[in-house]
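note to self: the first set is below, dont mix up w the second
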Amino acid sequence: MANTQVQPIFILPEGTQRSQGRNAQRMNIMAAKLVAETVRTTLGPKGMDKMIVDSLGDVTITNDGVTILEEMQIEHPSAKMLVEIAKTQEDEVGDGTTTAVVIAGELLKNAEGLLEKNIHPTVIARGYRSAAEKSQEILNKMAENIGENDDVMLSNIAETSMTGKGAEASKDKLSAICVKAVKHIMEKENGKIVIDKENIKLEKKVGGSVEDTELVEGIVLDKERVHSGMPRQIKNAKIALLDSAVEIKNTETDAKIQITDPSKLQEFLDQEERMLRNMVEKVAKSGATVVFCQKGVDDLAQHFFAKKGIYVARRVKKTDMEALERATGGRIVTSLEDLSGTDLGSAGIVEEIKVGDEEMTYVRDCKLPKAVTILIRGGTEHVVDEVKRALDDAIGDLAAALKTGKIVAGAGAPEIELAKGLRKYAESLSGREQLAVQAFAEAIEVIPRTLAENSGLDPIEIITELKSAHDKGQKWAGVDVFAGKVFDAWKAGVIEPLKIKTQAVSSAAEVAVMILRIDDVIAGGSSKNSMPQMPPGMGGMEGMGM
């Protein structure tokens, strides 16, 4: 009798796991939803913080979406895609990371309901894409304009960004600092506003309180003067920026010097001293009273600089040198021979100040600084870190608002207005795509719903009130999480840049569509499992003396 048993055929390495069809979709959606749930409680002015302890025991306390997701070291491939959205949002805008992730999670949750109704994933994907396109149109239509001189609105944007974060207690002072800093580094090219956030240096120093945070119209360096004989303070400083060492160069090739006479040794040493003295003379001749050197400064050269009353700091980071260039108007010089008066930058004052237990160099009162420093203070390392993240977000929001020139109110108002517009758009569609657009509209409402939940309010009651207000034409009706009722977010000064909303919606839609279209997950086995098996009789690894 023939053997009816069929030998299974393995086309994948041993240890490979595979899930297909609905099972694969369910697993992917579940992973993404869990990521969204993790950060969801941090949203809004009453959002809570997360404490993340890494394998080394380092603690991070934050409610910044992207920081939480990065510190969590997520492994699941679909969950990683949501971390990518947060990173994109951070790079593009600097704020709204939690919003983007929460919307993506909700889009997938709603898609799951449609999949259970046997609607094909590509139909849902098509509906989501058209809803995302329409969302951009609706959001742009509802946005208001903002100009660079609208200081009140700019201050409101910064304050809104900081509300609910570690910096909230001092948001009035910090928002003023952020607006001033952004205006300093703002430039115009062909009528367009250009802002490079890298030109605002955020320097952290533990000590004092958050209220002691200050804006320095120039650069603060974590460096001290190299010689105690140098002056601590120099007014009307002329600054030389050197990219070459003030030291005796070693020869490129191996060289051997033989000295037969002791007097020759002295001549040799005298020559070295003369060379260093000439270098210092060259700097002094240019008119420089302060030197920032990217490389080393010889001990003898330090002595000569001190005698001339020149302030010197060495081994300054390349990024700090470039910032000094923008702040002081000087030029980085690679060769001392080329240094002249025209290469020097200027600052009202350069001084060494003790901050906490470290000496720092302040380069302040620059005429038209295109790089500034915000020196962040706080009681502990964790406080300073969280304030830095809050300022990062606020600066990103201000830059986004000024670049696009468009703003919207916050407090969940634009989301309700957007959902209303999408539902109207869904009515113009026919077939199953309409259901996908309606699911998209419902997902957008997760933001005001979460704001209400995180504040201990009844989300159903709040959403109903919001919809009613928007139906009456109150475009900026949002959730007042402190009073527990609906209010006019625009009048209350809860303002956000349009870019936060447009970027969050488009990123969330793109990642949701990508995850929905996956119907097969093939996960390779770990390398130890997929090691080639030894043929029988070879005695395995032991037989090889391992």
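second set (the one i keep forgetting abt)
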Amino acid sequence: MAAEEKKEIIVQGISASPGIAHAQIFLYIQSDVEVPSYLVDAEKRGEEVARFDRALLATRHQISKIKQEVEKNIGPEEALIFDAHLMVLEDQALIGETLREFESTGRNMETCFNKVSARYIKAFSEIDDEYLRERGGDIRDVAQRLLQNLLGQAENALSHLAAQRIVVANDISPSDSANIDRSAALVTDSGSKTSHAVIVARSLKVPAVVGVRDLTKRVQSGDWALVDGYDGVVILNPSETTLFRYGKIQEQKKSFETRLFEANDQPAITLDGVPVTLLANIEKVEEVKLVQDYRAEGVGLYRTEYLYLNSARMPTEDEQFLAYKTVAESLAPRPVIIRTLDLGGDKPMAGNPDLFPKESNPFMGFRAIRFCLEHQDIFKVQLRAILRASAHGKVRLMYPMISGAEELARANAVLRTCMAELKERGQAFDEKLAVGAMIEIPSAATTADLLAKECAFFSIGTNDLIQYLLAIDRVNDRIAHLYEPTHPAVIRTLKHIVDEAHKQQVPVSVCGEMAGDPVFAPLLLGLGVDGLSMAPAWLPSVKYLVRAMTMADARALTAEALTLSSPKEIYARCDAFYRARVKME
């Protein structure tokens, strides 16, 4: 049967990179390297270690070449992705464990490295934070490449893709992302919005849809498809009517995107004259440029785990100080809220297994402020670094996963000790440093009135708060659909937090995913939230909506939402509010 006679099939996934593409499918199937296992003769063990060293060197050269190609063809920021890969190859814990495994078992290097790297990959795959969980892909990609070099196999890449095709894969490795510019669109069975391949796709303006389960089993190379990266839809065998309709949609979207970026240069003020604070979430120093390019009013969440998880050792005080100082100076006088370490439990450091005992329920376990208060030597190093950086810009400090006033008091006591230590050293810091707490645990939300007495500000982490309120593991595919930001319990809890904070003149921002979704932004602002912090790329969409609405209408929307009992009905009201003000024509 000809392709045009096949039945049109619509498949829903998750929007990862905007855009529309119509092309034939290139089915890209990656297979794991088959690793042989055998004993190495004692007299040949020196050569076996040398063979491992040669494979490490070859892998380093390959990745460096990929980095150079990405920097030349895509950009220096995207090329930084591969610094993490090179760091894996320099990781003395990973290499050292492999050599110790070889010494103790005498088995070939492929077997030893595969066993050790699998432990690292598993540790990262269990991390709750989506961005950090994706970093396990760095290790997996490097491990696959190193094993191929040990086995003398050709590298597995998309480089032979000559024409523009819709690449359909289970997932795309970071190395393969260097060849995404050859594709018309990218669709994956798994993956997420924060995968390296998606980051590169967005940079190249290649439409991408992720989380389209088992699509690789339903299509074959040569099939025709249409990818809608705006709404996360893949249409197999699109009809002429569908193609015509999407042609019109594409014209409207491009026109709308132009208006978004024009609006982004304007202040975030509603039609009735109410200013709205829009901030950015960042992970690394290099993202400062994005904060500037997207006109954010500062950083509402600077996650610091990246400094720890990209190394097998704890970063020193000076190393952390340099990172925090660079961000603070670059953005001054705009505020930079630095969140202290959210490490432990489901975010282990691979090189420090003794610090992180295995837990049956890591999401509710030994992590974040609990870890820091037990390991105050590690906590104090970070606090001193943040304090020192506060002398170079408008730095604010925020504790994650605070469960109550007593825990907050203990953290502040450690902070005061660090202040005294810096005074003894004669090192400058902001003695009036603003200190706040993330509200992401139901107990913190319930006792917001008590926490507000000891905080200069609140930042609501909606991702975890919703997860804990609804008892939903948002990374569990079987129940992820029950993760509903518009659940009445969520909205009422948010209102309670804001009301209690405002009674004591404590400002409240939201830094979870809800803040960056323009459908939810009016609901949050209507609740009285003072600021929204999001990934930099989401700022234009939210600012456009802010400038197209009145705060009075947002408050009316929220008032109505608080009377409704159905999450779907509340979402429908929010979506209608958004669509009425954001026209694509």
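remember for set 2: The chain has a mean pLDDT of 86.
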